[in-house]
Write a structure and sequence with these properties.
With 353 residues, this protein is α/β, with parallel strands linked by helices. Helices cover 33% and strands 31% of the residues. The protein is built from 9 helices and 17 strands. The protein binds adenosine-5'-triphosphate (ATP) and magnesium ion.
């Protein structure tokens, strides 16, 4: 049964930070009412797993409290499980099966390494064919979800839909789905880079790489023998500018960036081998996509057009609130809450809980 549309906010939890956003209006003409963020100490959340529930609860409460220009004035929200904690699969199911859900579960049991008793999952059709349909299937461990729920209870907030990060991202970054080609989405955050493929209006592939902005800063700090704080400032000021420190800082930064590029190349080859759908563009997002000259460098090395995805490109905002908001995930979650039936407007890991 679907819920009536209700006022709610989006909540994103990364290893690095908590972000909340509340929108109002229609999905294609939304207004940002409130946005707040708080940094998390190292180790509170690691690789998407919670290691300090109390500190995470404090971080969420703080992000909500800091929200501006308006307040977050509801307990209901939509959440995205960190990408590292979900299994994303794409199954082809013949149209003549008796039960699609049984057929999907059989396929899932072959590839998803989670005990059935500890599994939450959901699926949705992505592509209809004459003889078979393609389904997006998403699963996670129930105990992972429960540990987040314990924290939410401490804060006094309640999720009514749970999806995964890249599904939220594409909602903020794409107005329509490209008909004849796929797009590559690369979210470079602080600790993690998520590389996903968006095709047929859906995420069809997603991979996590444990190299991102913090690694860039660490390489600069170690290579130039400066503190992490100074390295962070230098990184933001100069990026890949070849003139800074006689080119040494660009060279140091390119080493982890090249590792990300090598992974992206593999993803491109994998998709090329799997389908005949061309990947015609790459959308860069996440805080580290702001590294100066990174889009140009990625374009030169990978040879595909690179755009920087702007999370607020279709959202009305009050003056000055744009600059700090770099995450399409939290905006995409808040956008889902503006749909007529938000709990049904995409994968919802609470649907079969
Ligand atoms: N102008 C800039 N130039 C380079 N890097 C930047 C810039 N602004 C922010 N960053 C980097 O962006 C990162 C934070 O990005 P983001 O908010 O997307 O991370 P996150 O989603 O919290 O982390 P993760 O998803 O990795 O757990 C930090 O490493 C920060 O140094
Ligand atoms: Mg992130």
């Amino acid at each position: 049964m679907s819920l009536f549309k209700k006022k709610s906010f989006g909540l994103e939890i990364s290893d690095n930070a908590v972000k909340v956003a509340e929108l109002s209006g229609k999905p294609m003409a939304a207004r940002l009412d409130a946005y707040g963020a708080s940094q998390l100490d190292i180790g509170v959340v690691d690789n998407g797993g919670i290691f300090d529930k109390k500190k995470l609860a404090e971080g969420i409460a703080q992000a909500i409290e800091k929200a501006s220009p308006g307040a977050i004035d509801t307990e209901d929200f939509i959440f995205a499980l960190p990408e590292s904690k979900v299994f994303i699969q794409f199954f082809e199911i013949p149209n003549n099966v008796d039960s699609v859900s049984d057929a999907i579960r059989v396929k899932a049991s072959e590839v998803v390494p989670i005990d059935f008793a500890n599994l939450v999952d959901d699926y949705m059709p992505v592509l209809e064919g004459e003889e078979a349909n393609e389904y997006l299937y998403v699963a996670a461990q129930k105990d992972v979800l429960t540990s987040f729920f314990e924290v939410f209870e401490q804060v006094g907030i309640e999720p009514y839909a749970v999806e995964f990060e890249s599904a939220a991202m594409v909602r903020a970054l794409f107005d329509t789905c490209p008909e004849n080609h796929a797009s590559l989405l690369v979210d470079i955050g602080a600790r993690t880079t998520i590389v996903s493929i968006y095709d047929y209006c859906s995420i069809v592939f997603s991979k996590n790489i444990q190299i991102a902005g913090n690694t860039f800063t660490k390489h600069l700090s170690e290579g130039l023998k400066v503190s992490m704080k100074d390295a962070e400032q230098l990184k933001i000021k100069s990026g890949l500018d070849p003139k800074t420190k006689k080119g040494k800082s660009a060279t140091l930064l390119k080493s982890p960036i090249d590792e990300i590029i090598a992974e992206i190349s593999q993803v491109l080859s994998f998709y090329k081998g799997k389908t005949d759908r061309p990947i015609k563009e790459m959308i860069l997002c996440g805080g580290s996509s702001r590294l100066k000259q990174l889009p140009e460098y990625m374009h030169d090395t990978l040879g595909i057009p690179v755009k920087v995805g702007l999370p607020l490109s279709k959202i009305k905002t009050k003056k000055g609130s744009k600059k700090a908001i770099l995450s399409p995930t939290v905006i995409g979650l808040a956008l889902r809450s503006l749909e007529k039936k938000p709990d049904e407007a995409g994968i919802n890991l609470l649907a079969n809980l």
